Amino acid sequence: MTTQPPQQPGFPQQPGYPPPPLPQKKRSKAKMGCLGCGGILAAAIVIGGIAAAVGSGSGDSSPSAANSAASPKTTASSKTSGAAKTTGSSKTAAPRQSTLDAFKAYVKKHESTKTRAAVAHVTKVQGADKNNDILDAADIYTDYTGDLLSADTGSAKLLASAFADFQSSRGKASKNGLVTVYNADGDILSNGKY
């Protein structure tokens, strides 16, 4: 009596022939690629770190710092003390107005009395100066205590609308800008496009 080898699933046994070899297992695409999920995450962190280091530079972006870096002129007394010669132009230049102050000044000059009353509650404006027209996001923080369904929501909508007008008056309107108005606890009161 001859014994037949066990029949493999999916392959019919033919008389007189050995059973066909089993197909090799395919490797998953995640194992075949050079970067898995962890590799992509690590690459994103490295690129972000490089961008932060390059973007921060020396930390001093004043015109006097650029002039002193471009032409290292020092006097004999400053060489001995190690201090670089400072120019008087940076001391006499007016300090740049913050976005919060510029927004409040715009509202006081151009908006309605309800909006003027609402802007008195604004404590901070963030992210309004950086636009890339891909995903621009600005935040307005207020001292309101209500939530999304409170009476403060109407004032928050006025602030979001006034911010859109403010950005377009500065030439910084965005194709994909989103302004979000927050209450004192950091909860969203309203949002709008700018």
Please provide a written account of the structure.
- This protein is of the alpha+beta class and 194 residues long.
- It has helices spanning 29-32, 37-56, 63-70, 76-81, 89-92, 99-110, 113-119, 152-169, and strands spanning 122-126, 136-142, 177-182, 188-193.
- A four-stranded mixed beta sheet has the order 1-2-3-4, with helices on one face.
- α8 (152-169) links the parallel β2 (136-142) and β3.
- α7 (113-119) packs across α8.
- The relative contact order is 0.09.
- Mean pLDDT is 74; it is low at 58-90.
Uncertain runs are 58-90
How many whole angstroms does the radius of gyration measure? 32 Å
What is the terminal-to-terminal distance? 87 Å
Helix content: 40-55%
Order of helices and strands: HHHHHHHEEHEE
User: How many helices does DSSP assign?
Assistant: 8
Structural class: alpha+beta
Tertiary shape: elongated
Number of strands: 4
Tell me the β content.
5-15%
Largest sheet: 4 strands, mixed
Q: What is the overall pLDDT average?
A: 74
Strand ordering within the main sheet: 1-2-3-4
Feature tags:
194 residues, alpha+beta, four-stranded mixed beta sheet, 8 helices, 4 strands
List the topology elements.
Blueprint lengths: L28 H4 L4 H20 L6 H8 L5 H6 L7 H4 L6 H12 L2 H7 L2 E5 L9 E7 L9 H18 L7 E6 L5 E6 L1
Parallel strand pairs: 2-3
Antiparallel strand pairs: 1-2, 3-4
Question: How would you sum up this structure in a few lines?
Answer:
The protein has 194 residues and is α+β, with helices and mostly antiparallel strands. The chain has helices at residues 29-32, 37-56, 63-70, 76-81, 89-92, 99-110, 113-119, 152-169; strands at 122-126, 136-142, 177-182, 188-193. 16% of the residues are buried.
